[in-house]
Amino acid sequence: MDLRSQLLTGGHSRAGADHIAAYVGDDPERFAALIHLMLHDGSERVRQLAAHGVSVACDPCPDLATPYVKDLLAVLDKPVHEGVQRTSIRVMQRCTLPKALHGRITEAMFARIADPARAIAQRAFAITVAMRMVKAYPELGEELRLLLDDVLRVDPGPAIRSRATKALKVLHRPATATPRR
Predict the structure, then answer these.
(1) pLDDT bracket for residue 91 (50, 70, 90)
(2) 30, 80, 131, 141: most buried, per Cβ within 10 A?
(3) What is the pTM of this model?
(4) Residue 130: domain span
C-alpha cells in the first residue's frame, strides 16, 4: 500500500498519525514522500493527513524537515488548509533553519505574530521560531519585545499569552556581565 493510501486508511486520528510517523521513522526518502503529499497533493484531505503525520514524525527527528524549510515558508503564503500552515511553523520550532533563509523566516514569523486573524496555534508557534531568530540575531530583540507587548494588549488567548510572557522574560533579561574576580 502506498503512503497516500496509508494516510487515507489511517484517518485523521493520533493513531493514524503515529502509524505514519512509525512508517517514516528517520528515513529521509519516506519523509520526502510524506512532505511532498503535505505540500503538493491535490486533495485537501490528504494534505491535512500528511501534515499531521509530518508533525508527529518530526517530534523525534526534527531535522528531517531541514531540507524543506524553504518549501515550508512558501506554503505560508498559499491558500492551503490551516493545519498545513500550522505544521509548517511547528516543525520550524525545532529543525535546523538554514542561515540563508533567516531573513525570510524572521519576516514571516513576525508577520504571523502580528496578525490577529491568524490561528492561535500558528501565532504561538511563530513566537518560538521568532525567539530562535532573536537568539541568532540579538539586535532583533527590541523589535520582537515591542511586537509582543502590542500583542498582549489585546486578549490573545492562553497559548499566545503564555508564550509571549515567557519570551518577554527572556527578552527583558540583562546581558550577562563578566563575573568579578
Answers:
(1) very high
(2) 131
(3) 0.90
(4) 99-173
